Amino acid sequence: MIRVEGLSKTFADGFQALKDIDLTIRRGEIFALLGPNGAGKTTLISVICGLVNASQGRVLVDGHDNVLDYRAARQRIGLVPQELTNEAFVTVWDTVSFSRGLFGKPKDPAHIEKVLRALTLWEKRHNRLLELSGGMKRRVLIAKALAHEPDVLFLDEPTAGVDVELRREMWEVVRGLRDQGVTIILTTHYIEEAEEMADRIGVIRNGEIVLVENTHALMQQLGSKELTLHLHEALERIPPALSGHALTLAEEGHALVYTYDATSQQDGTGISGLLADLEAVGLQVKDLHTRQSSLEDIFVSLVREHR
Question: Is the dihedral of CA 259, 261, 262, 265 positive or negative?
Fold first, then answer.
């Protein structure tokens, strides 16, 4: 659906925000773009949407060059900005209908109703925007972006400032849009949001794409697991007979933490050998549990590697 080729952006003051980016976003997927503040996320979205001119490279939206054939490219895109930019005294119905008209689309009350109902805004359609909560205002921005029936929806920090319950409701809305065939690209600071929703994840750092991977595969490839073994009696130090295992003491000696590769098969994790060695040295385990590294752990390590 979107192909970015050799894209760079240097501003007038000489700052290079984007550096030779190549990126392909598949039709009908949810793609999450992660990166620290100033990494280039919003600049990249702005260039794809035609709001900022690239210094080099090109962007194709459903095969349409967003410079040479900008009307066709732009008509396929809906953008939900990070900032709340609604007119305070306009009703929900009017502002969404107006957004549809901006793209030259004929009036279609049935489509507007469908969008408002999907976003739980139907009962608020006659309310002025100043009467809505912050979460509802953000839903109105999504409704406006969907008013002209785009094939691609960009969500720049869609749940910023939204409480946890409403955030999860909006996740369901986004999944529903994906199921209808809309391609979703979102930026987020909520790591769990990307882990929960995205089919693929891209990481951007200092204007460069450092990784693009399937979410599940990323967890499998870069995730590690920890096995915590709670002991009956505390240890002052790890016995020399266990030095061949990746163990650390925790909980004031009452636990051993074993780190292993999450992608290893059962016999490759070393757990069976570890348990046998524990028994051999006479250590008794009263409880154990595992923890897999989260996407946040992976993201932090990736950003550190590319500093």
Answer: negative
Residue 229 DSSP SS3: strand
CATH class of 224-293: alpha beta
Among the listed residues 205, 186, 187, 203, the one whose alpha carbon sits nearest the alpha carbon of residue 39: 205
Assign domain 2-219 to a CATH class: alpha beta
Positive or negative, the CA dihedral 87, 187, 164, 160 is: negative
pLDDT digits (tens, 9 = 90+) for 137-152: 888 998 999 999 999 9
DSSP-derived secondary structure letter, 240: G
116: phi then psi, degrees, rounded to nearest 5 = -65, -40
- Where do the DSSP E strands lie in the chain? 2-10, 16-25, 30-34, 56-61, 64-65, 77-80, 152-156, 183-187, 200-205, 208-214, 224-231, 247-250, 255-261, 285-292
Q: What are the sequence ranges of the domains in the chain? A: 2-219, 224-293
Query: By the 8 A CB rule, do 166 and 180 touch?
Result: no
| Of residues 117 and 219, more confidently modeled | 117
pLDDT in tens, 91-103: 999 999 999 999 9
Query: Could you tell me the two tokens for 304?
Result: 């550190």
